[in-house]
Amino acid sequence: MARERSPGIKLLFAVLIGGALLIPLLAVYALVYDRQHQARVAQDSITVGWGGAQVVSGPVLVIPYRAERVTSEQVDGKTVTRTVVERDELFLSPESQQVTTEIDPDVKERSIYKTVIYLAKLGGTAKFVLPPDLERFGVKREQLLLNEAEFRFGASDSRGLQTDTKVSVNGTALPLKPGNGVASSNGSGFFGYFEWTDGEPLDVVWSYSLRGSRSLTLVPRGGSTEWKASSSWPHPSFEGDFLPEHETGAQGFAATWSVTNLALGQALVLDDDPGAPNVSEPDGRSVIYAEPVGTGQSMAATIRLVDPVDVYSRVDRSVKYGFLFIGFTFLAFLMFDIVGGARVAAAEYLLSGAGLVLFFVMLLAFSEVIGFTLAYLVASGAIIGLLTAYSAAVLGSWKRARFIGALLLGLYGLLYVLLSLEAWSLMIGSVLLFFALAGVMYATRQIDWSSVGRSDTVDA
């Protein structure tokens, strides 16, 4: 008859098998990432022709001017200096502007995938004044080509622009043209020529509708920017360089930003248009997909229309707790083996661990179809039933199997709580591990881990 393994060797085998099961657990983690990527590709295809995440900015008044520059070159061994007249541009931001935005959200679906889309109605007023101290910027007023000035507006995905775009300057409608937007929206948007020959202050009133998806970002410009935004979407996330005062409830949200050029760190007159802000999707991809236009980086405020049932992020978090399920279940089997007198083979550890890993695959698959909560109930119920029945055969007792079932029920219930209470998950998990370790220490306090032979201890 083969010699009985010592408790220490049994513990080593359980640890080694548990470690081996981390490989398929990592494969499940990779599967979640792959399915999340497929979902994002599907969401992008849903928004084709509608509009992606939008970055808006403007108005900015662009004034061409003639700049005289002195150049030197070598001609026949002599240095020749010439004065060259070049055309350049000044970018004038408004002294003050007020922006209002109403976001009408919707959820668009294709097959098992869905994404949040919206129609945003934007409007605002802005006041422009020609600075009296232009010479500080190295430009004299007589150099300005005021009759060739342009008002520029930015919208990063111009596919979303609607037909109701209107801009008026001092009460006169401005004819608009596509393209030539501001650099902070990657050069996309619309513009209109304006003859500003008198150089008098300008009052600009504008409005347009814009289709987009997932997020809306405003790049503030000027001496002061006040942005008021409202929507019926109850799950906003406010991100970016500036955070608003806001009220959020089941009926939606209302938010207000107040940003000054002191906070922006920008003068009202610039000799170059700042580039796109650093706005990224939740998966890390940049909202601006093309090569950036302009120099430097703009600051921005973002409203993200969060999907509260993002199944992939919740499944991803649950997989990270997979080693706890394997560890606690193997620990229970080990205690029944070395304390309770049951005989648990390596293959039985392996099959039970495979069932625990399968839970996460089922959770992912069902979540995409019926939602996370129902999928969690289905997957956990199936695995608890399977492993409870299997434990009855492995441990030779339905009493012991019911303990395994109760253990798994408690673990799956605790995991759901941890997923719901993200801020408390680390503390709850550490306390659980403490009591589990204390229980194991108490149950094994009289075991000689190096001895060979089975204890006569009765059922645990």
Integer-rounded radius of gyration = 33 Å
Q: Which regions are unreliable across 5 or more consecutive residues at pLDDT < 50? A: 452-460
- Described by the principal axes of the CA atoms, the overall outline is elongated
Order of helices and strands: HEEEEEEEEEEEEEEEHEEHHHHHH
Can you tell me about this structure?
With 460 residues, the chain is α+β, with helices and mostly antiparallel strands. It has 2 domains: 7-40 and 312-443, no CATH class; 54-307, no CATH class. Helices cover 35% and strands 30% of the residues. It contains 8 helices and 17 strands. The strands form 2 sheets. Strands 1, 2, 5, 8, 9, 11, 13, 16 and 17 form a 9-stranded mixed beta sheet that branches. Strand 6 (166-169) and strand 7 (172-173) form a beta hairpin. Helix 4 packs antiparallel against helix 5. It is elongated, with a radius of gyration of 33 Å. The two termini are 26 Å apart. Mean pLDDT is 84; it is low at 452-460.
Gist of the model:
The chain is an alpha+beta fold.
Break the fold down into its secondary structure elements and pairings.
Elements: H1 7-47, E1 54-75, E2 78-92, E3 96-110, E4 113-128, E5 149-155, E6 166-169, E7 172-173, E8 177-178, E9 189-194, E10 202-213, E11 215-219, E12 224-231, E13 236-240, E14 245-249, E15 252-260, H2 261-264, E16 269-270, E17 301-305, H3 311-319, H4 322-338, H5 346-370, H6 372-395, H7 398-420, H8 425-443
Parallel strand pairs: 1-11, 3-12
Antiparallel strand pairs: 1-2, 1-5, 2-16, 3-4, 4-10, 5-9, 6-7, 6-10, 8-9, 11-17, 12-15, 13-17, 14-15
